[in-house]
Structures are given as C-alpha cells and as structure tokens.
Design brief:
heterodimer; A: 151 residues; mainly alpha; Four Helix Bundle (Hemerythrin (Met), subunit A); B: 230 residues; Fumarate Reductase Cytochrome B subunit; two-stranded antiparallel sheet
Chain lengths: 151, 230
C-alpha cells in the first residue's frame, strides 16, 4: 500500500518534472518542425499526384503525416505558448487554449483523414490518393482558419 | 411605358459583369472549401485579373456609360443625387461608389491572392516574387478582404432589390439586354471594335502576367543525381 502510494507519487513527480523541463521555446520549435515535416510530405504527395506517380514515395510521405498526427502533438501546446519564438515567432492563436472542444474536433478530423491517407496510399490508386489528399488538406485548413494567425 | 428606349450597357460590359458574378461566387466558394478546389481557386483568381484588367481599360476606351469619367462619384454629384436632383443615365453617383468600391476591392483581392499561401500546399502563381513573411501578411489581408467582398456584394444585391421594390426600377434587365426605358438620355456610343481589341489584348497580357508563366522555371535536378536509399 505504502509502496504503491510512493510509486504513484514518484510517477507524478517524474511526469510532472518532465513536462516542467520542456522549455517553451523547445515546444514551439518542435511544433514548427513537425508542421514542416508534414508540409514536405504534403507537397511530396501533391507532386506525385500531379506528375509521375511513385507509390513508394507517396506511402513514405503519408506515413510521416500519419505518424505525426498520432504522436500526441497536443502535449507541445504548453500553456502560455501562444507567444514566444521557436524557429520563428509562433503563430498559434490563444483560442487553442480557450476553445478546446472546437480544436479537439478539428484535430480529430485531421487525425482521421491522416490515418485514411496512409491507408489509401498503401492501396496505390493515384486517383483515390488525390481525392484523399484533398480531404486531408481540408482538415489542415480546418485548424489554420481558426487557430493559426496569418501574421 | 411606351417611352423611348436607350442602349445603356454595351455587350462587353454586360459580359464582363456576368462573368465577374460567376467568377467571384466560384472564388468565394472554392476559397472557403479549400482542399483540391484550391487549384481552381488560383485559376479563377487569374481569370478575375483578366476581367478586371478588361473593365479598367474599357472604363477608358469603352462606350459612353461604361466610361469612368461618365460616372465619377464626385461629392457634388452625390449631394445632388441624395437631394433627388441628379439627372442622368448609367450608374447613379451612389451606384458609382459601389462600382469603384467593388473594382478596387477585387483588385486588392487578386493582387494579394497572387502571392498568397495557405500553409498547406497552395501558393499563388506569383508567390515566388515575395518572401514567405510577406506572403503570410498579404494572405492575412486576403482573408480579411474576402469578408469585405462578400459584404459589398450583398449590399450591391440589396440595393438592386431596393430599387426594384421601392423605386420600381428594374436594374437587372438592362444589365441583361443592354436596353433601358428612359424618357431622356442618349444611347451609348463609341467603344467600337478597335477599342474592344485593345481591351482584350491588355486583359490577355494581364492574365499572362498574373499566371506567372513568365517566371523562370526551377532548375531541373542534376541528371546524374540518384536518390539515395535512405
């Protein structure tokens, strides 16, 4: 009993300190890096859909997006990081922290379409990939419209 | 009723008007929906550049009532109109404000749109001419102005409804047929074939400029470069 409590306390302490140790500047950098990797991948899919289609490339790109979508990036949105600079000044809007339900829906839609994108990419049908790419883009826009400042 | 008819809107002006209606509606819809429609959003925007360029040239060399000088909304004219003393055909001074407002707003909208980006995969055809930071700022303006375009277009339609119901004046029909029942006033003249060719050529040049087709192509990848397997 005692040891369980101690373990629980210890876990909380370790987890807490891990979060506390993440510097806001790093969190913003990692966010931006993740979006950069997804930007690369989205452009890669688009290039393939518009030019000569290479299934393997599209699978790689779709897997990157899927992996990032499922990585729990929400953890990088530390309170107060609507301001600050990572690689550049963050464009995260304060609404991210105030309209959680709306954001959750938008993020959930992205997650779903990212998973579907990976599935469709594995199928290798270029027309289906193009259609799913469009759907996925719409869910990117879903967040950008309301939660990303234009500057 | 059986008064005389005058020709107010020449065919190019009418075609411009209705093509612009279709294009702006399509641009708003594709912009809001995003996704794969963004490719069309860009193409429609380039088309609107052509329409606007045509109208601006036509405002100088077109027929009587299409000319900007004919309907410059000077304060004196607006005052006279509000007092009910304005006499004339074509755009009335308040309507003229709306015309210049819409043309100006849409011009700003296409200019910002040409260098805009959506932080996904869409970039305007002239995006390469500016830095990413500049593009971001102009994209922000593009988004703000889209609301103004929608608002002004709604006002435009509301004004037409007002004239139809309250003033018993049908503004739509003349924009379709070109003819208007009028007790006084002269039919439009000038804006002949040569003027039309000039306007079309300049509109074509504007489309070419906006399309970015003249931008240097990205250098091809070195031919011997092999993609590494990592």
């Amino acid at each position: 009993m005692k040891s369980k409590l101690l373990l629980a306390l210890l876990t909380v302490a370790v987890a807490g300190s891990a979060a506390a140790q993440m510097k806001p500047e790093d969190a913003i950098k990692w966010r931006q890096s993740a979006y950069g990797a997804m930007g690369w991948s989205m452009n890669r899919i688009k290039t393939n859909v518009e030019g000569t289609y290479n299934k393997e490339e599209v699978v790689k790109a779709a897997n990157v997006i899927q992996a990032i979508a499922n990585s729990g990036m929400g953890a990088l949105y530390l309170p107060g990081t609507d301001k600050g600079t990572g690689w550049e000044a963050t464009r995260a809007k304060p609404e991210i922290w105030t309209e959680k339900e709306k954001l959750g829906k938008a993020a959930g839609a992205f997650n779903k379409e990212a998973n579907e994108m990976a599935k469709v990419a594995a199928g290798g049908d270029a027309a289906a990939v193009k259609a799913q790419f469009g759907k996925l883009s719409e869910t990117c826009k879903g967040c950008h419209d309301d939660f990303k400042a234009k500057k | 009723m059986n008064g005389k008819r005058i020709r107010v809107w020449d065919l190019p002006t009418r075609l411009f008007h209705w093509l612009l209606v279709v294009a702006v509606v399509a641009a708003v819809v594709t912009g809001q929906l995003g996704g794969n429609l963004m490719d069309w959003h860009g193409r429609i925007g380039v088309g609107i550049v052509g329409l606007l360029a045509f109208r601006i040239v036509w405002g100088v060399v077109g027929s009587t009532y299409a000319r900007f000088r004919q309907f410059l909304p000077t304060p004196a004219r607006i005052k006279a109109y509000l007092r009910g003393e304005w006499q004339g055909e074509g755009h009335n001074p308040l309507g003229a404000l709306s015309v210049f407002g819409l043309l100006g707003l849409l011009t700003a909208q296409v200019l910002t749109g040409l260098v805009a980006n959506d932080d996904i995969t869409f970039t305007g055809p002239l995006f390469d001419l500016v830095s990413k930071g500049t593009s971001n700022r102009l994209t922000g303006i593009h988004h703000l102005l889209s609301n103004a375009v929608i608002a002004l277009a709604a006002l435009h339609v509301a004004a037409i409804a007002f004239y139809a119901r309250v003033r018993k004046q049908d503004l739509v029909r003349p924009m379709v047929t070109g003819w208007k029942e009028a007790a006084s006033g002269e039919s439009a003249t000038r804006g002949g074939f040569v003027a039309l060719v000039v306007a079309l050529v300049l509109a074509g040049a504007a489309i070419y400029g906006a399309s970015g087709a003249w931008l240097p192509a990205p250098p091809p990848p070195p031919p011997t470069a092999e993609t590494p397997d990592w």
